[in-house]
Write a structure and sequence with these properties.
single chain, disordered C terminus
Length: 329
């Protein structure tokens, strides 16, 4: 199933306009998530909206927004009042200016989106805007309204499309001075820096995100699959600590020694991962999790029996839960 657009409207550069759709470029739906359940019954927990003072449940039509100004004092703001101040340009991304990408501080970046033509018309105008940005080697700065709030968006070419990144406002970015002012000014010897640089050089390589592995996510899936199949869960031994570091120079020297020992194994692991990625995987449904064993009934015995009769090959075809659509903003 094709992803659903979070926003649809128009992209405009002066008098050049084209219909576009905005899609999230990232997703958290692939990650394992949990629900809270009643240990005694196994039923899911349901939360009710109640009055903080009376404890009585409150219906949706009786709930309004309120801005807290003091303890137990709120300024009520109605939906009609919010609609009155809603921005007019809710369906147009207006490009205001072009800036060098290097000028954008990374702290201002929020999340990326894909901006694509919406429908069969407007592709020529879309291409003109895209190639103009590309030829100038700059980023287009515009405004977009998501969930009733105006956001700054930076547009840049990505292959034959446009990537838009939401940016924070200055009041949302904290100054580094309140955190870095107490850092001591330390003098480092040339030998220490040379040793540290040697370690960095040994660990240097190309940025290959396809080789990244979420170890915690893998451990979660393994835990759930073991519990489904009725396998015993054993507690992991606590990792051994290296103790207190007495000498920074000694620590750097030991690091280099350990890097030399670990280098061959690390190279084999990288090469194996590349070979695995190079093999073309079978097509699977987007947004499904790698839960290898199906659940039969509520008990672990049914699951274990099912797992025992399931051919080993079935584990090679991961089954994931359907992805949930999520609003942008």
């Amino acid at each position: 199933m094709a992803p659903r657009a979070n926003w649809k409207g128009f992209l405009r550069l002066s008098l050049v306009t084209c219909p576009v759709a905005l899609y999230p470029a990232t997703s958290d739906t692939e990650k394992v998530s949990f629900n809270q359940i009643n240990r005694k019954t196994g039923h899911r927990i349901k939360y009710l909206k109640v009055d903080a003072e009376t404890g009585d449940e409150v219906t949706s039509e009786d709930i309004v927004k309120g801005y807290k100004v003091d303890t137990d004092t709120y300024i009520e703001v109605t939906k009609d009042e919010l609609d009155d101040i809603a921005l007019d340009s809710t369906h147009t991304i207006e490009i205001d200016e072009f800036v060098p990408k290097a000028d954008i501080d990374n702290r201002y970046l929020i999340r990326p989106y894909y901006l694509v033509p919406d429908g069969k018309v407007g592709h020529d105008a879309y291409a003109v805007i895209r190639e103009t940005i590309r030829s100038m080697d700059k980023v287009a700065i515009g405004r977009v309204v998501l969930t009733n709030r105006e956001h700054i968006i930076a547009l840049e070419p990505l292959e034959n499309g446009l990537m838009g990144t939401l940016l924070r406002y200055p009041y949302e970015v904290r100054s580094e001075k309140e955190y870095f002012d107490d850092i001591q000014d330390v003098k480092l010897t040339r030998d220490m820096l040379d040793l540290a640089k040697h370690i960095v050089e040994k660990k240097s390589g190309a940025f290959e995100p396809e080789l990244f592995e979420d170890h915690y996510e893998t451990a979660l899936i393994d835990l759930i699959n073991k519990k489904r199949s009725g396998m015993p869960i054993t507690a992991k031994a606590a990792p051994k600590t290296g103790g207190n570091v007495i000498s920074l120079m000694d620590a750097l020297k030991k690091s280099i020694a350990s890097e030399k020992e670990a280098a061959p194994a690390a190279k084999v692991a990288r090469d194996t991962a590349k070979d695995t990625k190079a093999k073309k995987p079978k097509k699977r449904v987007e947004g499904q999790r790698e839960m290898l064993l199906p659940i039969s009934g509520k008990g672990g015995k049914d699951a274990a029996a099912k797992a025992a009769t399931t051919p080993k090959k079935a584990a090679d075809k991961p089954v994931r839960a359907p992805a949930r659509a999520k609003k942008a903003g």
